Amino acid sequence: MHKLKVFFEMIKFEHTIFALPFAYLGAFLAAEGIPSAMKLMWITLAMVGARTAAMSLNRLVDRHIDARNPRTAQRALPAGQLRVDEVYLYVVFSFLLLGISAYQLNLLALYLMPIAVFFLVLYSYTKRFTWACHLVLGISLGLAPAGAWIGITGHWALAPVLLGLGVMTWVAGFDVVYACQDVEFDRKEGLHSIPAVFGLQRGLEISAFLHTIAPLLFIAVGVVMSLSWLYYAGVAIAIVLLFRQHRLVSADDFSKIGVAFFDLNGYLSILLFVFSVLDIILLS
Q1: How confident is the model at residue 283, as a pLDDT?
Q2: Has residue 247 got a pLDDT over 80?
Q3: In sequence order, what DSSP letters do the residues of 185-251 get, joined into one string?
Q4: 253 secondary structure, DSSP code
Q5: How many whole angstroms separate alpha carbon 121 and alpha carbon 143?
């Protein structure tokens, strides 16, 4: 039980709150109502498998870098709380869970699963050669609502593409803010991030630009799906939370980055989901 607790802390299991509500939103939009309990169960298990595999692999790939970074040196692998072979086992079983879940949803979900796996694996290596690592992370999470839509309907549509792009720009934007903590270390290690390459102030400006695009894409989803005022009220709250996030951090002060990164983005995903589902169920 202690090792399990350490593992969940290592992969920041609570950060599942960022992507899971959007996966559920993709499912509710696809069903134009409440999806079946079995579909929601397999979507949930697919999300758990995908995120657990990706975070475990990321910790494995970065363990030597984490050991040299004072901010991350006490993570489970650098600190010796978990063995490398144990974490590799978690990766294998998590990807297996993703595959089983995709198969249970439908064949198209299974056939497209390798695309998701590709981006989940790629992300762990991107900061070694490109500042676009934030966008790769955004794509990885943006595939959640698109995958859930396919899991429900078995086909593509414009709405999940727009929703996925919205999630991508939202995630990439707040990941840029998070990366500001490690600018000096990243430059010393030759690692790439938007703040390390372009500087703190420009990095925050790029993050703000991405967080301007994301709500526009969310609005486009509402237009395509003919959603009503409740959905747009949720988008309006998301805009306020994004604006607040950028008021809390500056190039000179990252003391409130925990609130800006985790709290506000967690609220955003949950509230947008709640308002969207109320709209789908009550008004659409």
Answers
A1: 81
A2: yes
A3: HHHHHT---HHHHH-HHHHHHHHHHHHHHHHHHHHHHHHHHT--HHHHHHHHHHHHHHHHHHHH-BT
A4: B
A5: 14
Count of other CB atoms within 10 angstroms of residue 228: 15
What is the pTM for the complete model shown? 0.94
Q: What is the pLDDT of residue 41?
A: 97
CA distance 227 to 250: 36
Tokens read off for 74: 């006490």
Q: Is the dihedral of CA 143, 144, 146, 148 positive or negative?
A: positive
Q: Is the pLDDT of residue 43 over 90?
A: yes
Q: What angle do CA 61, 74, 171 make, to 5 degrees?
A: 55
Distance of alpha carbon 44 from alpha carbon 256, whole angstroms: 31
Is residue 247 within 8 A of residue 235, CB to CB? The reply is no
Is residue 131 within 8 A of residue 120, CB to CB? The reply is no
Alpha helices (runs of H) in 154-193, residue ranges in sequence order: 158-179, 183-189
- Residue 14 is predicted with a pLDDT of 66
The radius of gyration computed from the CA coordinates of the chain, to the nearest angstrom, equals 19
Q: Is 35 helix (H, G, I), strand (E, B) or coil?
A: coil
The answer on pLDDT for 258 being more than 90 is: no
Please answer whether residues 39 and 105 qualify as being in contact, where contact means their C-beta atoms are separated by less than 8 angstroms: yes
Instruction: Tell me if 27 sits within 8 A of 41, measured CB to CB.
Output: no
